[in-house]
From TrEMBL:
Matches recorded under Pfam families: Branch
Record key words, sorted: Glycoprotein, Glycosyltransferase, Membrane, Transferase, Transmembrane, Transmembrane helix
Transmembrane stretches, start-end: 36-60
Main location: membrane
Keyword Electron transport in annotation: no
Location in or out of the cell: Membrane
Annotated region (Disordered), positions in chain: 1-20
Cited InterPro entries: BC10-like, Glyco_trans_14
Name of the protein described by the UniProt record: Glycosyl transferase, family 14
Bilayer topology term: Single-pass type II membrane protein
Recorded GO CC terms: membrane
UniProt GO MF annotations: glycosyltransferase activity
Length: 412
């Protein structure tokens, strides 16, 4: 009982604290004024609370969103080791990409050539991916990308099959054919599934350059591709795979033919409206068929300065495929370019098209001449191996090419 009384005494309010807290203020306000002051105080407190609530809500929402994104892109269980790599974008921003081993394999070596990207998306992606400074894989093997620009099938495919046989993992194949071509390729062929999304290409039209850039962009998506070769349906290899592979991989230069030609089919095709971006003194001519490295391939698909100028003014007999790359390389990348092509073509007869070779033209002596009949510079040394490929060989020549390939070109 004593404890009960003691607690009651402790709970009794003192006379000083028995009046309401606002008692002292009520002496200075009338009843209406007091209620107005009380309302204003509550509104002020409510406003501060609302401001703090909004701030906390935005913070928590942002935190929750980031957490959800991290949960989506980060698997809860990953049996494969994780690899990271820095990617530098075109705006010089650096992003960290986290890849599982399986995703890394697909990232480095896309399984399929066909996709549903537009040209703009493809070129953007191709110009971004190769900016990775180091390929995060111990099993990375440099490859040569063989890019075929054709109307339909690769006419000399059986010869190329012999060329590629036994060298799997050292090459990639990309075929840009007419979008109206609906032929099929046997599943056993190295060309099976290697067609890329294409657009119509007309001879002499600037859309030929669009097709070349499209091939390069697709090939750049495979980070293993380090050398890029443009070929036609009538091209043949003059040496076996190992010789061509080593020649390309060990070269310190790119191979784009570029020269100043003062005649009507040279400087005569220049459009003065290209100034000030391209001057007449910078105008160059050369072969369409090139062999380049990854660094130059990136620059070509990323070009937003000279490509639009050519596209707008290189028309009506300009033949952009003979001038765009020679001019671009001579202006910006001439230090590392050899100013020659590795594809042999005979223009000695004149006319708009080079010589064509049928069955009767294919002899052992002729093939030897193509292989060793010239002299040039390679990595600062004189050599008689100046051409690795040749054109234009017609389908009728295939049987003789197949017969001479093991003996002359040392296939297999």
């Amino acid at each position: 009982m004593t404890i009960y009384m003691k607690n009651n005494k402790q709970k009794e309010p003192s006379p000083a604290s028995s009046s309401p807290p606002s008692y002292s203020y009520r002496r200075f306000f009338s009843a209406p004024q007091y209620h107005l002051f009380n309302l204003f105080s509550h509104l002020l407190i409510f406003g501060f609370g609302l401001l703090i609530g909004i701030t906390l809500t935005l913070f928590l929402k942002n935190f929750s969103l980031n957490f959800q994104i991290q949960q989506v892109f980060t698997p809860s269980f990953s049996p494969s080791p994780i690899s990271t790599s820095n990617i530098t974008t075109s705006n010089n921003d650096t992003k960290v990409v986290t890849l599982t081993r399986d995703r890394l394999r697909v990232f480095l070596k896309p399984d399929k050539a066909m996709h549903n990207m537009s040209d703009e998306e493809l070129l953007w992606k191709a110009s971004m991916f190769p900016k990775i400074k180091e390929v995060p894989s111990k099993h990375h093997t440099p490859k040569v990308a063989f890019m075929f620009l054709t109307k339909g099938p690769v006419l000399l495919a059986p010869l190329w099959e012999k060329f590629f046989k036994g060298n799997e993992g050292l090459f990639s194949i990309y075929v840009h054919s007419s979008p109206y071509f609906n032929g099929t390729v046997p599943q056993s062929s190295v060309f099976h599934g290697r067609r890329i999304p294409s657009k119509e290409v007309r001879w002499g039209d600037f859309n030929m350059i669009g097709a070349e850039r499209r091939l390069l962009a697709n090939a750049l998506l495979d980070l293993s591709n380090q050398r890029f070769v443009l070929l036609s349906e009538s091209c043949i290899p003059l040496f076996n795979f190992s010789t061509i592979y080593n020649y390309l991989m060990n070269s310190t230069e790119t191979f784009i033919e570029a020269y100043d030609f003062p005649g009507q089919v040279g400087r005569g095709r220049y459009n003065s409206k290209m100034k000030p971006y391209i001057k007449l003194s910078q105008w160059r001519k050369g072969s369409q068929w090139f062999q380049i490295d990854r660094a130059l391939a990136i620059e070509i698909v990323s070009d937003q300065r000279y490509y639009p100028v050519f596209k707008k003014y290189c028309r009506n007999g300009c033949y952009g495929d003979e001038h765009y790359l020679p001019t671009l390389v001579s202006i910006k990348f001439w230090e590392r370019n050899s100013n020659r092509t590795l594809t042999w073509v005979d223009w000695s007869k004149g006319g708009p098209h080079p010589s064509r070779y049928m069955r009767m033209n294919v002899t052992i002596g002729f093939l030897k001449k193509l292989r060793y009949g010239s002299r040039c510079q390679y990595n600062g040394e004189t050599t008689n191996i100046c051409h690795l490929f040749a054109r234009k060989f017609m389908p009728h020549a295939l049987d003789r090419l197949m017969r001479f390939a093991p003996q002359i070109m040392q296939f297999n």
